[in-house]
Amino acid sequence: MTKRKQQGKNLDNVLLYLVAALGLSTILNIVFKKLKISLIIGYIFTGTFISYLFHLQHAAHSHELEFISEFGIVFLMFTIGLEISLSKMRTMKMLIFGNGIAQVVLTAVAVFTVSHYIFNIDLRSALMIALAFALSSTAVVLTYLKQSKEIYTSYGQRATGILIFQDIAVIPILILIGFLSNKADQDISTILLYTFISAFIVLAFMFTIGRKLIEWLLHFSATSELDELFMASVLFIVTATSLLADFMGFTYSLGAFISGMIIAETRYHYKVEADIAPFKDLLLGTFFVVVGMKIDLQMLYDNFSTIVLVFIMVFILKTFVTFLVVALTYKPLTGLKTGLALAQVGEFSFVIFALASANQLMDEQLASLMVLVVIFSMIVTPFFIPHVKKIAEIIIRSKSSIPEVVDMHERKDHIIVCGYGVVGKFVAKHLDEYGMEYIVIDNSPKHVKEALKKGIEAYLGDMSKRSIIEALHVKDSAAVIVTLDNPEKKQLICEAIIEQTKEANIIVKVISKEERVRLKKLKSPLIVDGKVEIARVLVERAMSCQLKF
């Protein structure tokens, strides 16, 4: 009886903590929302307040609570996978693997050099700090980029590509920690062989049998017309794939990421993304509450100047390295904006420091201090990141002469003119004569500049990219007029638009029979044959002439 009463009391305590956390986070975030402060700050403050109010500092490091909070990152990685289909990863391979590898490796080398040779931190601890500080916060940065729609800009795309690679890089980092730990009893070749075999098994299963199972389950639950059954299927897929990855020695996040990529190739992509959003946001909130619970106010007070100094050094170093990486392949202004956006330290650093400390790879006090640096950077970033563009323009002393594609602010019934070549210019001229609202999109800077000089709203971008289609609100447009000459590009644009929304009115200019046949297979586009239209106009003009005999 006494044991049952104790269990009931413990349950009452847990409910009290939950109610207090929910109430405080709701009030704080309502206030922060009005002040335009990131909700992440509200969750972190909630965790710190609850921790000290109920003396729960020890609970923040409990395996159970960290396991629950980790699923916030799992669902975030799942939504990233939904954004990054295999086809999109192929188109972003330079951003993910080119910029990503360069940023992580160069940042890790730079931080290791400073830590070991300047601050005389021992070899293993310096390596752990370097690997942790090379990573940025996917949760903070990607959440901001998606909410602000800056994920559609050139710097947003590059930041996203680097973040994706950083999340992938967590896997070899965790393997390295296992190898360096005192408990590792296998040589590096054995560990690498096991890792490659495990990775092959996971990927082979997920993209063959797993893909068919996922598609069948989503189809079955969708045809049942029960929303709760569909939602249960999605939750099962995320958790099952996460557990599979964990069983094979990888992170939970990797399994969720792969399942998201698979669903991104199906027609249930958008429904899954919409349905999963509340769970992702709730669990992400839990993650940041646990982050707040880890804050040791006494250590923060005693070492505040050191924490701020380390953060500033890391901020400058990471900004400089990322700036160099991006600026070498793109524009300096975009490079600086990307560097500033990714200058903070990420949430996976908590995992690295926790494992390093547990396996005696670094001193526990040093690990705790580094955790406070990570928390400080995550608190500062939401205040800083909305001003990245202005700060970069002040430092570079330059503004982009060509506007980047951003969200069209819920614009409706507008006409999108794709291409501002010879035909595009005539289309724009006639639309002006009719007083129609339209936007020009072209992947040629020269054409965009020509349109801007005439006072036309024009943007630089590739209409075959899903991010551009979303940003221009194609699904709500009156029509999309494709005036390009390249047959392959026209087909790619039509396919991309149809894949996202079958309701769009697509009007395409064709100049050959082969092109007309290929586009007719897509069914949706309204095809305007240049030769046929010219013949019709010639006859109309001839009929209107007064023939003299």
**Rg, Cα atoms, Å:** 27 Å
> How much helix is in the residues?
over 70%
Please give the order of strands in the largest beta sheet: 3-2-1-4-5-6
The CA-CA distance between the termini, in Å, is 117 Å
| Bulk shape | globular
**Per DSSP, what share of the residues sits in E-state strands of 2 or more residues?**
under 5%
Could you report the average pLDDT, rounded to the nearest whole number? 80
Unreliable residue runs: 6-11
Structural class: mainly alpha
* Count of distinct strands: 6
Number of helices: 24
Characterize the biggest β-sheet.
6 strands, parallel
Task: Note the run of SSEs as H and E.
Answer: HHHHHHHHHHHHHHHHHHEHEHEHEHEHEH
Q: What does this protein look like?
A:
The protein is mainly alpha-helical and 549 residues long. It has helices at 2-34, 39-53, 63-83, 86-91, 93-118, 123-133, 138-148, 154-180, 188-223, 227-247, 252-264, 269-293, 297-302, 304-327, 332-341, 348-358, 364-384, 388-396, 422-434, 445-453, 466-471, 487-500, 513-520, 530-544, and strands at 415-418, 438-442, 458-460, 479-482, 506-510, 526-529. It has a six-stranded parallel β-sheet with strand order 3-2-1-4-5-6, sandwiched between helices. Helix 23 (513-520) links the parallel strand 5 (506-510) and strand 6. Helix 2 packs across helix 12 (269-293) and helix 9 (188-223) runs antiparallel to helix 10. The longest helix is centred in the middle third of the chain and has 36 residues, at 188-223. The protein is globular, with a radius of gyration of 27 Å. The protein starts with a helix and ends in a 5-residue tail after the last helix. Residues 6-11 have low confidence and may be disordered.
